[in-house]
Design goal:
Length: 309
C-alpha cells in the first residue's frame, strides 16, 4: 500500500482513526523524525511496522531545538526521498506539518523542561536543546495517539472494544540522552505510551549512521571511525568481565588529529550519572552506557555503546 501524506493534525487524527477502524487494529505506532532519513530511521520504521497495526511517521524540523538559525536553515530537507524510504518500510501515514501547524501561536510560552538530566553531556554544549526537543515530542505524542476505544467485538478475543489500542513510539538508541529523557518524560508525566528504543545502525566500517555524516569529507569520515573503535574496545572489555580501560580508549581518540573530543565517559543508563571510578579498575559487572561526543573537522558527532556483563 502506498504511503499517505498528511500535513494537518486534524488530517492525521482522521486518517489514523480510519485506518485503525478499517483494519480492526489494536495498536498504533509513532516514529518521530526530522526527515533527512537514513537506514537508522528505516530500522525505527521497520520495528514500528512489525509491532503495530497502523504506523505514523512524523517529519518536522523543529525550530525549538536549534540554538542557531544557521543550523536550522542548513538542516537538510529531503521530503520526496524520506517518503520513499518510509513507504518501503510499510509506514501508513507521513505527517509533515508546517511550523505554523505545530506552533499556531508562535513559540510556546510553556515548555517541557528537561531538568538535571538535560543539562549534562549534550545539554551542556547545546543549552535549551532538550527542552525544545521534549516540547515537540510531547506534542507529537499527543497528535499520534490512537483514537480511544474500538468498535464493540473488534478485539481478537471477540470482547467489546472498551480497551484502548496500544500506543508505542520509537526512538533511536544512537541519541541515548534524548531516549533517556523521553522515557523519563513519559514516566514522570504519565503519557499513555510505550517508549521503544531501537539499536543504533552502523555502516560496515562501524560509523554510527547520522544525518550529519553527509557533512564529513572522506578524510574526516575515516578519522571519525576512531569513535566507534574506542567504544568497541570498552565493549570487548565489558564482555570479557575486565576493567573498562577508559584511559586507553581515550588515548586512542586523542591520537587522531582531526578529532577534538568533547566528552567520553561510562554512565548509568537511566540517570546518565558517571559510574564510580572503580568500574575502570575492577572487573566490570552490570549495565552501563559508554557515551562519546567529538568534533570531527567541523562536524559534531555523538555515539554510544550499551555495556553489559
Ligand atoms: O531525534 C530527532 O530526530 C528529533 O530530536 C525528534 C525526536 C524528532 C524531535 O524533533
Amino acid at each position: 500500500m502506498s504511503i499517505q501524506l498528511v500535513t494537518t493534525v486534524a488530517g492525521l487524527r482522521a486518517e489514523s482513526a480510519r485506518l485503525l477502524r478499517s483494519r480492526n487494529g489494536v495498536s498504533q505506532g509513532l516514529v518521530p523524525t526530522m526527515g533527512a532519513l537514513h537506514e537508522g530511521h528505516a530500522a525505527l520504521a521497520h520495528t514500528a511496522v512489525e509491532q503495530n497495526d497502523v504506523v505514523v511517521a512524523s517529519i518536522f524540523v523543529n525550530p525549538l531545538q536549534f540554538g542557531d538559525a544557521v543550523d536550522l536553515d542548513r538542516y537538510p530537507r529531503t521530503l520526496d526521498a524520506d517518503l520513499a524510504l518510509l513507504e518501503e518500510q510499510g509506514v501508513d501515514l507521513a505527517f509533515a506539518p508546517s511550523v505554523e501547524e505545530v506552533y499556531p501561536g508562535g513559540e510556546p510560552l510553556v515548555r517541557i523542561t528537561s531538568g538535571r538530566l538535560g543539562e549534562k553531556w549534550e545539554g551542556a554544549s547545546r543549552p535549551g536543546h532538550f527542552d525544545g526537543a521534549l516540547t515537540v515530542v510531547a506534542k507529537l505524542l499527543h497528535y499520534g495517539m490512537p483514537a480511544a476505544g474500538l468498535p464493540s467485538g473488534s478485539l481478537p478475543d471477540g470482547s467489546s472494544g472498551a480497551a484502548l489500542p496500544a500506543y508505542r513510539a520509537y526512538f533511536g538508541q544512537k541519541d541515548a540522552q534524548q531516549l533517556a529523557l523521553v522515557r523519563r518524560m513519559a514516566a514522570d508525566l504519565n503519557f499513555p505510551v510505550e517508549i521503544v528504543g531501537v539499536p543504533t545502525v552502523r555502516s560496515d566500517d562501524g560509523l554510527a549512521l547520522s544525518s550529519r555524516n553527509r557533512f564529513l569529507s572522506d578524510e574526516e569520515r575515516e578519522a571519525a571511525l576512531v569513535l566507534s573503535r574506542a567504544l568497541r574496545l570498552l565493549e570487548e572489555r565489558a564482555n570479557a568481565h575486565e576493567p573498562l580501560d577508559v584511559e586507553s580508549a581515550q588515548a586512542m581518540i586523542e591520537s587522531q588529529p582531526l578529532v577534538a573530543l568533547d566528552y567520553f565517559d561510562v554512565v548509568d543508563p537511566g540517570s546518565l550519572e558517571p559510574l564510580a571510578e572503580n568500574c575502570r579498575e575492577t572487573p566490570f559487572r552490570g549495565e552501563a552506557l559508554a557515551l562519546i561526543a567529538a568534533k570531527v573537522g567541523p562536524v559534531r558527532l555523538i555515539d554510544n555503546m550499551p555495556l553489559s556483563s
